[in-house]
Specification:
The chain is mainly beta and 193 residues long. It has two helices and nine strands; from the N terminus they run E-E-E-H-E-E-E-E-E-E-H. It folds into two domains: 131 residues, Chitinase A, domain 3, CATH 3.10.50.40; 48 residues, Beta Barrel (Thrombin, subunit H), CATH 2.40.10. Helices cover 7% and strands 33% of the residues.
């Protein structure tokens, strides 16, 4: 069996930045499963995995354009603390999802002063060239229900990972693992149906 459309593919991966710093790994949490061809992961990763067989190893570089976009300074805003309903909960590093005119965006508090805080709506990996080292751990046929829904019904964000709060995919459109969460909405798995 090979990696192709409508196959459930389980992968182990390590994600590093261009300096070689390890950013994320599935080695401790188990492989990530996704439906190939359903836009569950970055297109560049799907292309690299297409046609591969069980235990195949793929190393690929992902440019900002192929991954999380260039860093945009206009997505960084200074917000008065008084305008935030729970000012006492504003803490450095806190992430939450905002509904914007361009759709949902993950925002990170990157600075907190006496009267203001800085909100960065760039993806945490924006502007970075990334290195993925991927191994195909399993391949199976997707069920009819999985194909209809476009994802594996696993709970959490639906990407096949078991993330701890505040790690990995979170609620961003494209999580650190390369999963696309732009469709996340309702059921326990985080996807609309």
């Amino acid at each position: 069996m090979i990696v192709e459309k409508n196959k459930v593919v389980s992968i182990h991966y390590e994600l590093a930045n261009d300096s070689g710093e390890l950013l994320e790994s599935t080695q401790q949490q188990g492989p990530m499963a996704y439906i190939h061809g359903a836009s569950n992961i970055l297109p560049v990763l799907e292309d690299a995995l297409e046609g591969k067989s069980l235990r195949a190893r793929v190393r690929t570089q992902v440019s900002p354009e192929q991954g999380y976009g260039e860093y945009q300074s206009e997505l960084v805003q200074s917000v008065p603390l008084a305008s935030f309903p729970n000012a006492d909960q504003v803490k450095l590093g806190t992430q939450f999802q905002l509904d914007t005119s361009q759709g949902p965006r993950l925002a990170t508090i990157t600075n907190v002063d006496e009267d203001t805080f800085t909100l960065d709506m760039n993806h945490p990996l924006a502007g970075q060239t990334l290195q993925f080292d991927i191994e195909v751990a399993d391949i199976r046929n997707a069920t009819t229900e999985e194909i209809e829904r476009g994802h594996i019904h696993t709970g959490g964000c639906g990407c096949g990972h078991s993330h701890e709060e505040g790690s990995g995919c979170g609620t961003s459109d494209k999580g650190d693992c390369g999963c696309d969460h732009s469709q996340d909405k309702e059921c326990g798995c985080g996807h609309s149906h």
